[in-house]
UniProtKB/TrEMBL annotation:
The keyword Amino-acid biosynthesis does not apply. The chain crosses the membrane at residues 76-100. Residues 254-316 form the Protein FecR C-terminal domain. GO terms for molecular function: sigma factor antagonist activity. It comes from Prevotella heparinolytica. This is Anti-sigma factor. The keyword Cell inner membrane does not apply. Keywords: Membrane, Transmembrane, Transmembrane helix.
Length: 317
């Protein structure tokens, strides 16, 4: 490598030799490179030092030019600057090649995870947090930024979050016009565009919700559920320990309904299984359903509803 460096310092390096020099620098340890640069700097100072007679002659010429004109001063400075550039530039470039190897390059890279009909997945984030995604949901984050100074993700759909505690880097979830800030906690988050609401049921820990529409902020405690209305930006809190068990029933592969019309029950099954259900007769919407259905067997769910409502239900795929 020394021979190539010498040729480079004399400005005689070819394109192929420059590529070879770069490769050698990449393959050399930091300690060897540091010692090599220090040695070259000291040698350059020694070889370029002037004796006392030469220094005095140069200074006399500078003094004569100083008395000639003001413009000559800048001419001298310019020549000295060019001389310094000639001496320092090769060393600067060699140092830059070394630094280029040491400084990491970050490229923006957005991770997007989606679930389809009847599909559920468990996602592990870089900080150790877990997100259990329900059907037809989307989670996204910038992998080059996540965890460096902040932890931030965007989410649409339904998911159960188990967030790793990190006081210095709170976890933020961006969902529609709502920001969810958490430290270390577990909660169920649900947002569907057709409902125009965002629902968060807190199992443990603490979360803060901030509306981007009207700066409305609330803090939730375990056992509470918040409903954010996209229309006006208001957040309503309910004490609902029992409801939270219902909210997370999907993780147990169950659908829990409380005072829901048959239309709502059928709509839930259609969305989950990705089918269309045809009913043989119309059912009064005031006839409400309370009960639990499985999220693993559509035929079993249909049999329960047919027996309960005395009708026939056909599947149109």
């Amino acid at each position: 490598m020394e021979n190539l460096e010498d040729i480079y310092m004399n400005n005689e390096l070819t394109k192929d030799e420059l590529s070879q020099l770069r490769q050698l620098i990449n393959d050399t340890t930091d300690e060897v490179l540091s010692a090599d640069m220090e040695s070259r700097w000291e040698n350059y100072q020694q070889t370029k030092s002037l004796n006392e007679k030469e220094q005095k002659a140069i200074w006399n010429r500078i003094e004569r030019r100083l008395h000639h004109s003001h413009r000559s001063v800048w001419t001298i400075i310019w020549h000295l600057a060019k001389m310094a550039a000639v001496i320092l530039l090769p060393i600067f470039i060699l140092t830059s090649l070394w630094l280029y190897r040491k400084v990491p390059t970050y490229y923006p890279h957005n991770i997007v995870l989606n679930t389809g009909q009847g599909e559920r997945v468990n996602v592990s984030l870089p900080d150790g947090s877990q997100v259990y995604m329900n059907v037809k949901s989307q989670l996204s984050y910038d992998v080059s930024l996540f965890g460096r100074h902040k932890r931030e993700v965007s989410f649409v759909g339904e998911g159960f979050f188990e967030i790793t505690k990190d006081i210095e880097r709170p976890f933020n979830i961006l969902v529609n016009q709502l920001n969810v800030k958490v430290l270390g906690t577990k909660f169920n988050l649900k947002t569907r565009s057709e409902n125009r609401t965002v629902e968060l049921a807190l199992v443990e820990g603490k979360v803060e919700l901030s509306s981007k529409k009207n700066d409305h902020q609330v803090a939730l405690c375990p056992g509470q559920k918040a409903i954010f209305h996209l229309s006006d930006g208001h957040i309503i809190i309910h004490d609902a320990t029992t409801t939270i068990q219902d909210e997370t029933a999907w993780r147990r592969n169950e659908f829990v309904f409380r005072d829901k019309s048959l239309d709502e029950v059928v709509q839930m099954l259609e969305d989950y299984y990705g089918v269309t259900l045809l009913l043989s007769s119309h059912i009064d919407s005031n006839h409400l359903f309370t009960g639990t259905l499985t999220a693993e067997n559509l035929a079993e769910d249909i049999a329960i509803l047919e027996k309960l409502y005395h009708l026939r239900i056909q599947i149109k795929k």
